[in-house]
Every structure is written in C-alpha cells, then in structure tokens.
Specification:
single chain; about 575 residues; alpha+beta; Chitinase A, domain 3; four-stranded antiparallel beta sheet; about 15% strand; globular; disordered N terminus
Amino acid sequence: MRNLFLVFVLLLAVFCAFLSCAKREMALATVGEEVITASELEIKMKQQPTRFSSFADELERKRRLLEGMAEQKLLLKGAYERGFDADEEILSKLEEQKPNILLQLLYEKEVTSKSQVNEAELKDFYKKQGEEIKIRHILVKSETVVDSLHQRLMEGEDFAVLAEARSLDPTSAMGGELGYFRWGSMIPGFQEAAFKLKIGQISKPIKTQYGWHLIKLDDRRPVEQEPYEQVKGSLKQKLESLKQGELSASFLERLKENANFTPQPVLQKDFWEKYQSAPESLQVRERSERIFTDQELETPVLSYSLGEWTLKDFLGFLDRLAPMDYPDWDDTGILQDVLEKYLRRDLLLAQAEGQRIETSEEFQMRLRGLKEDLMAQRFRTEVLEKDITVSEEEFKEYYQENKGRFRMPAEYHLREISVETEAEAKDLIQRLQWGEDFARLARENTLRTHLKEKGGDMGYLKSYQYPGLYQAASNMKVGDTSQPILVGGNWSVIKLEGVKKEGTKPYEEAKAEIQRVLVSKKKREAYDSYINPLREQFPITIDQEALEKTIDRKKYAEISIEQG
C-alpha cells in the first residue's frame, strides 16, 4: 500500500511538472510543423519594450510580432541551407553579444523580477504623494569636505551662501535651491532624508551615487490629489520604475562592497606624489614613461575581488579619465566609487558567471534567437536583395509621375528679436517704427545668444522650424516687421528679409529620395516573391485564444477607470 502511494505521488509530481512546462511552453503559432511558443514571444517583447494603450493595442502588436517571427522561420530555411549558421562573421558577432545577453538576464533576475508592487505599497505611495517639499542642497565629492561644511552650518553659517561657494551642483548659483518635489521624484537615500526634515532643519551628510549631500528643508505643503482608483494604474507603473531604480542602486552598492577595492599605501604616498611632481603639460602616458621605472610600473598598487592592478594598469585607467574626474587619492571611498564605475561591467559579468546564467535555458534561447536574427538579416541582404539596382530610366519615370511629392514649401528669410515680455516686444516695435536699426536692436536685446552677433539673422526658415514664426512670416511682405509673437514662453518680433517661393525640387536634388523609395519597394517585392510561395507550402497559423491568454486584462481595467 505504501509503495502504491509513493507511485501515485511520483506520477502526480510528473503530471504537475508536465502541466507547468506546458503552460510555460504554450504554443501561440505554427509555421508548417514548427511551433512558436509563449516564451519565445516573451523574449522578443523584452528586446523591444513598449507601453500599450489598451488590451486591443497589445493584442494587435503581439499578433504582428508573431507574424514577423513566423515569416523569419521561413527565411531561416534558406539561411540554414546556405550554411549561415556556421558563418564566421555571424559567430563572431554572437560572441561579442554574449556579455550583453548575460548582463540583461542578470538585470532581469536581480531587478526586474523583484520590482512588482502590491496594493499596500501602492496605497502608501499614493499617501506620500499628498505633499511636496521645497529644498536646497550642497553636493561635494569628499566625506571630509561634507563633514567640515556640516560643522560650519551647525555653527550658524548661511546655507545658501555656503552652497553658492562650495556646491558642485549646477544649482549652486541659486544657493542650492532645487524647488518643490513630491515623493518619488528624487534618488533613494536623498529622498528619505529630505522628507524626514522639519522646515528650516539641515540634514546630516547623505551619501548617494553622485557624492555627498547636505539638505535643508525650506517649505512643506499639501497637494491636491485625484481619487486613488483613478490614478492607480499610472502610480503602479511609476512605483515599479522607482523600485527598479532602488533595487539597481542597492545591487551595485553590494557589488562595490564585495569587490573589496584595496589601494596599497604605496599608491597614495610614494607613487601619487611622484606622479603629481611631473610637469602638468605631460600627458598620462608621457608621465608614466618619464618618471617611473619599469620595476615601479610592475608594482601592485591595488587589489580587488577579480585580481590586482599594477601601477601600469592604474595609469592606463587614469589615461581614460579627464583630469577633472581624477579621484581624491586621500579619500578611499571616492577612489572606490570611481573604480567601481570603471570596472562595473567586469564585476557584473563575474556575478553572472557566479550565478551560472550562461548555462540557463533562457540564455541559450536568447543566444539562439540572436543568431537566427543575424542569419535572417544576412539572408535578406546577401540573397534576396543582392542584385537590386535602380536604373536612370526608373529614376526619371518616378520623378515625372510623382512630382507632387517633391513640392518645396516657401522659405522665409527672417531676423528676430526674442525678449521675455510682450511689453518689451511692443517697445521694440515702436523703436523700429521710429527708424532704429533692427540688427542693432537684436544684438543688444535678443535672448538667443547664438544670434546676437548675426543681428538676429535666422537665415531661411523652413516650415518645420519655429512654426509660429513661419506662419506669421507667410502673411508678411518683404521689409515688414511683425507684431509680438509668443514663442516658447518668450516674445518675438521678426522682420521679413526675403522669400524663396514654393516650387518643385529639381530632379538631381530629388534623386536621393527617389533612390530610397525605389530600393525599399524592390526589397519588399523581392521579399514577397520569396516568402509568399513558402507561406503556401508552410501555412502560418496563430492561436488567437492562446495569444489573448498572454495578456493581463486587469491592468487595462485600471487604465479605463483612470480615463473615465
């Protein structure tokens, strides 16, 4: 009896495993006897991520993608027959792309797969969106510097003045002011510290990927919100994106810690002092050749989890940096940050290797998919499209039959003065009416700094450039000056200097466009003449019901509530 029970359990486990596999490998389409599975479609979707507006939109796009995947299988019949699967160039490209596939799968495993949010998280995020804060900050590279600045602030120095003098952020000119922010608009670590502050309070030093920060809270105010159910869908997308950012930052921080970057004392003392003593005019390579001996260049100066660097390796690293990006050699933390960014790809690939991602079924599927993409592309270019040419007669015939496509809209030669207010624009118009020179006024007043020296001369304007100015110019005569025109938040006054009338593009100028059109048409014809007989021989069938099961209908119900 016990043996029978064990047999039953074993059969049940096998049956469940079969059902699980069948679900994962659900067939969505067939090409003759070949099958395209849900997992294959999922991989293709990940390679070209996009947002869908509705269930019908996602269904249609997936259907079109499936059609393309099915036709590619027909192309691959010819590619395999010609031995493209053993082509050296394709295999070489495949080797080059292996690391990228590994990194993509590592990201999906460590970040994307862990970024799903639940209802409680969504409601908490919605609640936090109910207020916004106004802050200032100071950004510096070194922990030593930030500690010193924090002490000065605690002793009463003005935050804005200190930010203007010491912050490395572009906001320093505004006393470090960042304006108002809601929860979810700032980087992790910085955000939590900012929202904990009381008005007027200054934070302790905060470390982020950008350096060390000090934050001051200037204001806090409530924000009117739409009902939760109406914004739930968009909030979910935003929170998942934020969660991915947090997971990614956390993973990279652990990566840096586990790398165990350890600069040897000789790097920070003897070698760096010697390096700095060389004339500034010398490039890194010249310094390394002139001031270090061969023995010194082979001295280990840095160890980390994947090995060690000699001084020669380290100088090669410096050679890739701009001098302004050189680390502070006395600050081990900054040095580690710079090295982690430089060696991040190697460290991530080591992680992927440690997790044996290369042996996974998912990796093999993606590698095979990429190989077949390259094979199909090679088959199209070297077989189907190899002999495509366009004759001079075809060029001329197309030009004569499609002259309407080569119409050239009028172009207007303009001078412009751009100012902040309508009152300023009206004042300029009055001065122009009294005879002042347009070019001189443009040099003195226009906000477009790149046009100052040209006296506001914009050259000939096409219809897609500054549509508001173009439309105004179309109703003017040469020599006219316009009334004020609102353009991108500022006000413009223009003068029409000349007109190129509407016409037809000359044949020689149209030839390149004709070439693109006719070659594209012939490529499509060559493709269809090859693929259509194969579609009859190997019918393509898409399982609509199975395809619909790959789509989560609930998310579109939430979007409908928002739009309603």
